[in-house]
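Q: Trace token order:
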Amino acid sequence: MSRRHSCTSDANMSLTPMIDIMTTLLAVFMVTTPMLTSGIDIELPRAGTSAMTGNDHAIQISVDARGNYYLLNQQLPRDEIVKRAVAMRGENPNLAITLSGDTHADYGAVMSMMGKLKDVGFQRVGLRTKLDDK
């Protein structure tokens, strides 16, 4: 003898808690993301009073005061950065590069990186600076 239980369950799910959590996460990411853009301590040189405009997506390459090279936030040898930049260009032929050099960095280290990038065919290599205060 088998008994059948007629059990009804409410299959509706309340989305309100999930929406609250997603909104909170969105707010946290919106606040913290700008703080994560540059994890390398670089004092940029001051130059000019007008900023370049453009909506290009660029790779960030940095040279610190000791002459160390960084791709995004990872310290790498110069030639390795160039290899990775070439690989990234394979996915995006219009890729631009922004080169950030510390004010106290060796000029030769910054120009060496720029020269290597030009040698492998990058035409859009820019130098990042701070705006002068008036």
Summary: The helical segments are 16-32, 78-91, 107-119. The beta strands are 58-63, 69-71, 74-75, 96-101, 125-128. The chain has a mean pLDDT of 78. The chain is about 35% helix and 15% strand.
